[in-house]
Specification:
It is built from 2 helices and no strands. By secondary structure, the protein is mainly alpha-helical. The chain has one domain.
Length: about 80
Amino acid sequence: MKKLVVAVLVILAVCSAVVAAIYFTKTAGNLPHFFPGYLKDSLHKHTKHGLAFIGLAVVLLIGAWMASGSKDSSTPEKTEA
């Protein structure tokens, strides 16, 4: 189950990075019609949208990293005296 969660998070992070690249390279008029920010015949680039998707990709990768960690039962937990 843990591997599935990690795999899904990594796939979502890669998809977010691809969407960010599309926002950075395409103008608002050339974006796919279902993307937020699409404006017909616009030459504006949505840099903030791209930055938001880069941030989302980073958060998803951190989540995958945290989910992939193992609980090492050989290390005794600290107990308060």
